[in-house]
Amino acid sequence: MDAVTLYNDIWNSTTELEARCKESLNPRGADMLYQLFAGFSPTPQSEIIDIGCRDATYAIELANRFGSRVLGIDPAPIHIERARNKIAQAGLADRVRAELAGIEAIPMADGSLDMIWCRDMLNHVDLPRGLAECARVLKPGGHMLVYQTFATPALEDGEAARIYAAMAIVPQNMREDFFQATAQAVGLSITTRDVVSSEWRERWAEEGSTALLEDLLGVARMRRSETTLIADYGRERYEATYASCLWGIYQMLGKLQPTIYLLAKG
């Protein structure tokens, strides 16, 4: 295409296209995870584990929605401290508890769990060991919900290397084919694959969230003041913060693809 064609024929007749781009595609929100989990038919008798529970927000919500008993595990001591405080504040100590542990060594007996909730943490772990542990602790016929972000071909090698190093990500865990093969190898069958892509981010923006704009401004400001910020806070903290800002932006650009998997133990 030459410049005359661009200005005379393309950009001179894009008013309808521009209008179409401003129309919502009715993106789904994060609450869809609970709706999908409800398909496992959890009950007050169900034993559920939230792997990588952070501050127990999701464990508490699972207990409130379904009345189930929930164990949250996380390898970060600060997360367990916050989780226990939040559980106590919610008055749910009889149904929700938090323990310091990682997915590679789940502190539960073989075949003791009905369901597993695993949101946005598999990027960091020994995936073969972790999913094997999930298969071990699930009862026959048990279910697992996984929300995981994968790289797409649009993520360039340099971009990938930078964010993986900054965010303690295991590179092969960002490959969807590796996840699928690993799950199946340990006896977890894939019953549902649902590509979220940029939907949640679109939904938040359409509802008025300024998070994406803040991330864009953060990247711009950090890039322009890189030398000073690194001198003040160190390279590791700088890179982790910079990559965190890029994470949502890359989802909007299609470089990263959040995807939901529902798995079952045969």
Produce the secondary structure layout.
Elements: H1 3-10, H2 15-21, H3 32-38, E1 47-51, H4 57-66, E2 69-74, H5 77-90, E3 96-100, E4 113-119, H6 127-137, E5 138-151, H7 157-166, H8 176-185, E6 188-195, H9 199-206, H10 211-224, H11 226-233, H12 235-252, E7 256-265
Helix pairs in contact: 10-12, 11-12
Strand order of the largest sheet: 3-2-1-4-5-7-6
Order of helices and strands: HHHEHEHEEHEHHEHHHHE
How far do the termini sit from each other?
55 Å
- So, CATH architecture? 3-Layer(aba) Sandwich
Number of domains: 1
Category from helices, strands and their pairing: alpha/beta
Give a short summary of the structure.
The protein is of the alpha/beta class.
Structure description:
With 266 residues, this protein is of the alpha/beta class. It has one domain: Rossmann fold. It is 47% helix and 21% strand. The chain has twelve helices and seven strands. It has a seven-stranded mixed β-sheet with strand order 3-2-1-4-5-7-6, sandwiched between helices. The longest helix is centred in the last third of the chain and has 18 residues. The chain is globular. The N and C termini lie far apart (55 Å). The mean pLDDT is 97.
